[in-house]
Every structure is written in C-alpha cells, then in structure tokens.
Amino acid sequence: MDARSQRKLRFLAAILGTGVLGGIIFVAAHVGFSPPQLLIGIIYGILISGAIGTFELLASSGPLRDWLGSLPFSASLAIRSAFYATVIIPVQYFDLGVLIAGLTPDPKQDVWTPIIFSGVFAVALNLLFAIANIIGPRAFLHLVTGRYHTPVEERRFVLFVDIAGSTTLAERLGSLGIHRFLDKTFRSLTGPIIDCRGEVLNYVGDEIIVTWSEASGTVDCRPLRCFLSMRATLQKLQERFEKEFGVAPRIRGSLHFGPVIVGEIGDIKRAIVFNGDVMNTAARLEELSRNVEGGFVASRPAIDRFESTLPAPLQDLGVREIRGKSGSIAVMGLA
C-alpha cells in the first residue's frame, strides 16, 4: 500500500476510534456501563465519526481541499461544523443507533442532550485537527506525547529545497503575488513528501525543510527520490503555473545526514526544533547548489547511508569548502 493510502487509513482509524470513545464516554456518564447502551453508543460513534472522517478525507484532496484552504480559519471551521450538524442532528433525532442495534426507540428519550454533546465533541475534534494541520501532525503528536520534552540526539536526513530566483519573482509578482506563488508551490510539493514519507520541519521564506529518521530515509533512497519527485511534479504543473502567474517554479536542493538535537523550545509558542552542525551544513550546501549544474548537492555522508540503488546518476563534485565552517566536505550532484 502506498504512503498516501496508509496515511488516509490511519487518519480514518483515528477518527473512528475517537468517535467510539466519545460514544462510550457519553453512555457511561448517563446510564453507566450497560452492555446494550454501550453498543448503542459505539454505533453512534461509528456513524457520526465515519461520516465526518469521510468528509475530512475528501476535504484533504481535490477541489474541496483547494477551496477550503483558500478560506480563513474561522470560515473553514464554520463550514465543517455546519456539515457536522447535518450529520449529527438526523442521526440522533431519528435514533438511528438504537434502530441499528435492533432496539425500540423511547419516544420520551431526550434527544437534544446527545445532539449537543455530539456537536461539541465534533467541533472540539475539528479544532484539534486544525491545530495539528497548522503545526504538523507528527509535531502535534510529539508535543502531546512529550517525546521531545527532554532534548534527544537523533541521526537524521535533512533536505533543504529552495525556490530558484525568488527575489526576482517577488519584484515581478509583488508581495501578495509571491506569497500566493510560494503557497501554491509548497502545496504542490506536499504529495511527493507524503509519498516518500518525509516530515516537513519548517517553511522558511522561500525554502522548505524536510527530514527523515535514519531508519526511514535509508529505505529506497527516500530523500533523493523526494527531491526528484518534487521536480517531476512541478514539471507536470508548469502550464498551470505559467497560466496563473506567468512563470513556473524551479527548485534547488541540498541533502545532508548526521546527528541532530531534537527538542521542544519556547514558552508562549512551543515548538519542536532541530539544532546542530547538520542543519547548518545542509543550509550551506543549499547555497552551494546555486552554483552547480543540476541545482542539487548532497553530502557524501548522506549518499553513503543509502541502502539501495540510486534513482538517478550522481557525479562527484569533489571536496568543497563550506562558508562559515572550518574544514571541507565531500559532495555529489545530479549528473
């Protein structure tokens, strides 16, 4: 199964699990742990969360994704909440969970309390999804679990991807235009990153930083394949960009590998950051990529860690001095 399908299945499973948990909590709080009532709560949880999960999967791809992504956060939340209401109210009002369980609905049963509970639960869940989308699903999970509350050292692949000629583009497109251009470019690069199981670390101006753990990145040369797939994706979208902006994006990149320190930092705005020589060297290699044919530079330590045949031929660029660092590093580039 490909990475995108696995990601969707994990997302749907998380939604269904949360919905079932919400149904159990509601039933337990109102009538206790009666097996028939627990079954009804589970059915309601599956019905409501299944519909919501399906909607969110549709909202994460295709025209609906682009439309919702173009709206302000509050407007997107309102639209999602309105859809949730169209699911929750009929399901609860007509006692579908009771009917599916093979029981007879009680006409005197209070229907508004479960409707309100389901609505509040769904909106809260939607807020969590929105927050996770803003800071990144993996970063959100790591913050919740406290994985990096105490800094740890990990061996990581770090890929810097830069939009070539962004300064000139900014002068040509204007401030608002270059922002839309970068936003659409980075959105277009999301697919290759997911396919290659990368993790977006940060967006810095006209750069995107993607990272892999050593175990994940060594499989099938994922970081290198990711960069090549990014270029191929932008090539396919060239006509669309030229039609909308009058120019298509071109990217450069650099890849490095080694130990980084990963940990939480900050107070009123908590974030997970990567520090260390690997990050600095990867950034300097990106500067070097601007002056080499092929627009891509990878360090020898990164290439030597790959366990399978390279997806594209590379040429030895020799040993290069790195600005701001003592010593030098052996590098390779796309042939």
UniProtKB/TrEMBL annotation:
One of its GO terms (molecular function) is adenylate cyclase activity. The chain crosses the membrane at residues 12-33, 39-59, 111-135. It comes from the Bacteria. The keyword Acetylation does not apply. Residues 157-286 form the Guanylate cyclase domain. GO terms for biological process: cyclic nucleotide biosynthetic process; intracellular signal transduction. Keywords: Membrane, Transmembrane, Transmembrane helix. InterPro entries: A/G_cyclase, Adenylyl/Guanylyl_Cyclase_3/4, Nucleotide_cyclase. This is Adenylate/guanylate cyclase domain-containing protein. It comes from Afipia massiliensis.
